[in-house]
Specification:
This protein has about 70 residues and is mainly α. The chain has four helices and no strands. It has a domain of about 40 residues. Helix 1 packs across helix 2. The relative contact order is 0.06.
């Protein structure tokens, strides 16, 4: 596991390289609440799932192959 300082440096370099300066700055400037809202929304969605149906959809072999 790399140290936090090295991780931060690498992530910042990747953001600037992939997004460009203005979009990287825009992303880094987003309020934390806005980023966390997506996590909360995802957790709320997960709470509505029926575990049995979910696992059956994922792990039951598809018998309707073409």
């Amino acid at each position: 596991m790399m140290p936090d300082k090295e991780l931060t440096k690498k992530v910042t370099e990747i953001l600037f390289r992939e997004l460009g300066y203005s979009d990287a700055i825009r992303f880094l400037s987003l309020p934390k609440e806005q980023k966390m809202e997506s996590v909360e929304r995802h957790r709320n969605w997960q709470n509505t799932l029926d575990n049995d149906n979910f696992y059956n959809d994922i792990f039951t072999p598809d018998t309707k192959q073409g």
